[in-house]
From TrEMBL:
Transmembrane feature ranges: 6-28, 40-57, 63-85
Protein name (record): DUF421 domain-containing protein
A GO CC term assigned to this protein in UniProt: plasma membrane
Superkingdom, taxonomy of origin: Bacteria
Source organism of the structure: Conchiformibius steedae
Location of the protein in the cell: Cell membrane
Assigned protein family: Belongs to the UPF0702 family.
InterPro entries, alphabetized: DUF421, UPF0702_alpha/beta_dom_sf, YetF_N
Residues of the YetF-like N-terminal transmembrane domain: 10-81
Membrane topology annotation: Multi-pass membrane protein
PANTHER family in alphabetical order: UPF0702 TRANSMEMBRANE PROTEIN YCAP (PTHR34582:SF6)
Key words of the record: Cell membrane, Membrane, Transmembrane, Transmembrane helix
Length: 222
C-alpha cells in the first residue's frame, strides 16, 4: 500500500507539472482566450497531453527527464509561433469566403466543390434577425468561421490590404486592385511596404496606414 500511495502521488505531481507548464505558456504569451490560440497551440496542447498520458503512470520515468520533455515541447511551440505561423498567416487571412457583394450572391458559390452551405448560412442570418437575402449588402465567412454581415444602408466594409509588410492579395482582388497599386499608393504617402504594420481601405477611398513605429497616416484616394 505505501508503494501505491507513493506511485499515485508521483502521478499527481506529473499531472500538475503538465498543467502548470501549459498554464505558464498560455499566461506568458497572453493567450488567455480561445480566440488567441493558433493551430500550433492546439496541436502542441495535444502533444503535451499525449506526453503526460504516456508517462504519468510510469514510475520509472525520471522527473527531470519528464520536465525536460515538457519544456522542449513548449520551446518548439514558441519557435513555430514566432517564425512559422507569421509567415503562413497572410495566406490564411485571405481564405475568407465572400458570399454576398453589393447585394449579389456570388456565382462561384453555386459550384459543387465550394465549402459553402446555403441552409447553414441562412440559419446564421436568421440568428442575427435577418430573414431575407435582399436585406444583405455584404456577407463574408471569415477564416475563423465567423460571419460578417452588412445590411443595406449600414455603411461600407473595410479591407485589410497589408499586415506586417505582407500584401493580402485576396483583399486587393475584392476591390479590383493589385499589389502594384498598393505599393504606388503607399509611395505617394512616403511609406515603404516593409514599414507597414497595417494598411486598411475604409469608406471606399480612405487608405489608413499604421507604421511599425505606431505612426499613422491617411490618404484620400481619387
Amino acid at each position: 500500500m505505501p508503494y501505491m500511495t507513493a506511485q499515485h502521488l508521483f502521478a499527481a505531481f506529473k499531472l500538475l507539472a503538465g498543467f502548470a507548464t501549459v498554464a505558464a505558456y498560455l499566461t506568458l504569451n497572453r493567450k488567455t482566450q480561445i480566440q488567441a490560440l493558433t493551430p500550433i497551440d492546439v496541436m502542441g496542447g495535444l502533444l503535451i497531453g499525449g506526453m503526460a498520458g504516456s508517462t504519468v503512470y510510469q514510475p520509472d520515468t525520471a522527473v527531470l527527464s519528464y520536465l525536460a520533455q515538457l519544456l522542449a515541447a513548449i520551446g518548439i511551440m514558441m519557435l513555430l509561433n514566432r517564425f512559422l505561423y507569421p509567415a503562413a498567416r497572410p495566406s490564411t487571412t485571405d481564405k475568407a469566403l465572400s458570399v454576398i457583394i453589393n447585394g449579389k450572391l456570388q456565382p462561384h458559390l453555386l459550384k459543387a466543390r465550394t465549402p459553402f452551405h446555403l441552409p447553414d448560412f441562412m440559419a446564421q442570418l436568421r440568428s442575427r434577425g435577418i430573414y431575407s437575402l435582399r436585406e444583405v449588402d455584404f456577407a463574408q465567412i471569415e477564416a475563423d468561421g465567423t460571419l460578417t454581415v452588412i445590411k443595406h444602408g449600414e455603411g461600407r466594409r473595410n479591407f485589410l490590404l497589408a499586415h506586417k509588410g505582407q500584401i493580402l492579395a485576396g483583399q486587393l482582388k475584392q476591390i479590383g486592385r493589385d499589389a502594384n497599386w498598393l505599393i504606388a499608393a503607399l509611395a505617394e504617402m512616403g511609406i515603404e511596404l516593409e514599414d507597414v504594420f497595417l494598411a486598411e481601405l475604409a469608406n471606399g477611398n480612405e487608405l489608413y496606414v499604421v507604421r511599425n513605429n505606431a505612426a499613422t497616416a491617411v490618404n484620400i484616394l481619387d
